[in-house]
Design goal:
The chain is an alpha/beta fold. About 45% of the residues lie in helices and about 15% in strands. Strands 1, 2, 3, 4, 5, 6, 7, 8 and 9 form a 9-stranded mixed beta sheet that branches. The structure holds ligand C2E and magnesium ion (MG) (3 copies). One magnesium ion binds near residues 118 and 150. One magnesium ion binds near residues 58, 118, 150 and 180.
């Protein structure tokens, strides 16, 4: 039969694979439609400084699917990347984040907060990317000094000079840059000093076992030392426990992001959290690096 047809090892029909291809095609079609209808949204996860003060949020894409409920980015970002849908997705998330920044700028509890968006390599490679960002900032009235961009090392695998030129133009209007998931990719250290970065993000995978795995601890310390010598800020992502926080805090004045400080939240919940952080109540805030 067709399944075993290939004497030469070729398979013309594999039901399991067929099911997978069909499911992926359906997901792609749904994503395309929901992007057109602008149904994807952003949740906001707190980022705090070494004293536990709220700096802002990372904006993380969320897809409320009509049948499947909330689908996680780890499921749909790869589909978006491989189909080119990451471009309309990125544009929608940029627009959503800029509108949110503009709204937050009118409330004392949120006016100083930054919003960091994730920008994929494919987006960054687009000729018109800088113009699109500039236009969106103008259109929405967002303060570009409050907008941050998180890039991953995959952005740097080709045409680094082009990436640097775009970063320079965006920096010129006030936008800051973090290198996300640092240590998991292939970026060479020689690029690092050429890139106009503001911050390195220690990947969650190193933070996770920082207390039990000496290699992860060494990598985390190396990234902290490297940031310091390059004059960059450093933020640890995926901090879930007081113990992880205490370990990292021994090694420098870091910024932090993780469930210990807050989960990604819908805008209204993030605003409540920001209000709880506002100056007068600062001594009561968070888990407490200030209270400690
Ligand atoms: P990322 O940029 O490294 O984002 C951090 C991820 O770690 C988020 O997952 C966040 O919810 C999760 N996280 C944060 N703190 C903790 C913690 O303490 N413990 C654990 N276990 N996880 C934590 P999320 O929201 O599922 O996003 C996954 C990835 O999807 C992101 O990783 C980013 O690479 C990508 N992504 C999300 N939104 C966008 C977007 O708008 N555009 C692009 N291009 N990529 C996006
Ligand atoms: Mg990120
Ligand atoms: Mg990350
Ligand atoms: Mg990560």
């Amino acid at each position: 039969d067709a399944k075993t047809a290939g004497r030469n090892g070729l398979r013309f029909f594999d039901p399991a694979m067929q099911t997978m291809i069909t499911a992926r095609a359906a997901l792609e079609a749904d994503l395309r439609e929901d992007l057109k209808q602008e149904r994807l949204l952003l949740h906001y996860q707190p980022q705090v400084d070494h004293e536990g003060r709220l700096l802002g949020a990372e904006a993380l894409a969320r897809w409320p699917h009509a049948q499947k409920g909330m689908i996680s980015p780890s499921e749909f970002i790869p589909v978006a990347e491989s189909t080119g849908l990451i471009l309309p997705l990125g544009a929608l998330m940029l627009k959503t984040a800029c509108h949110q920044l503009a709204r937050w700028s009118t409330d004392p509890a949120t006016e100083r907060l930054t919003v960091a968006i994730n920008v994929s390599a494919l987006q960054m490679r687009q000729k018109t990317f800088v113009e699109e960002v500039r236009a969106m900032v103008e259109q929405t009235g967002a303060n570009p000094h409050r907008l941050k961009i998180e890039l991953t090392e995959s952005t740097l695998v080709s045409n680094v000079d082009d990436v640097i030129a775009k970063m320079d133009r965006l920096k010129a209007i006030g936008i800051g840059f973090s290198l996300d998931d640092f240590g998991t990719g292939y970026s060479s250290l020689s690029y690092l000093k050429r890139l106009p970065l503001d911050q390195l993000k220690i990947d969650r995978s190193f933070v996770k076992d920082v207390l039990v795995d000496p290699n992860d601890a060494a990598i985390a310390q190396m990234i902290i030392a490297l940031s310091k010598s390059l004059g960059l800020a450093v933020i640890a992502e995926g901090v879930e426990t007081e113990e992880q926080y205490a370990f990292l805090a021994q090694h420098g004045q870091l910024n932090y992001q993780g469930y210990l400080f807050g989960r990604p939240l819908p805008p209204a919940d993030f605003e409540s959290l920001a209000r709880a952080f506002s100056p007068r109540r600062r001594s009561k805030q968070v888990h407490g690096s200030v209270d400690r």
